[in-house]
Specification:
Length: about 190
Amino acid sequence: MAEKSEYLTEEEKKFLLQLARRSITYFLKNRRMLEEEVENPRLKQKQGAFVTLKVNGELRGCIGYPLPYKPLYQAIIEMAVAAATEDYRFPPLTEEELADLKIEISVLTLPRKVNKPEEVVVGRHGIIVSKGFNKGLLLPQVPLEYGWDLETYLNHGCLKAGLAPDEWKRGVSLEVFEAQVFSEEELG
């Protein structure tokens, strides 16, 4: 991430994780979005963020804003609900699954263009691969979770964009970003 002062504190991380869980629970029970205001100026800053959901260790949803469209706390409320109910890869989360749900949040830096694939640092950089109307994003923790090297990471970025896996060798737009990643498992 950029400046040390931009990092979230332990209290802010815990608050955002609790906010994500409250947002999902509230939506599943009431079928509408949680409305909440926060006083903390750091959480009111616009920042890109993703919410990843796992049930019994298996991916169950992951959706986010790659760019800073909304205040961070609002992005977390919306993306937590979207990850639980709108990820096309999975059926919507059920109330019965809440007990086994683990939430992870990734707060993103602004993406920046890189000129060569070799500039991507596996485990540090998330990637956005684009060509024409195709675009795919992978968070920086993904290649670590699967033990991917740089080439495999770039291949999967291309696949996520709906491109041939080796399209990056023929020329794509490649952007990188960093993320502060934290989870309920890590913070209790």
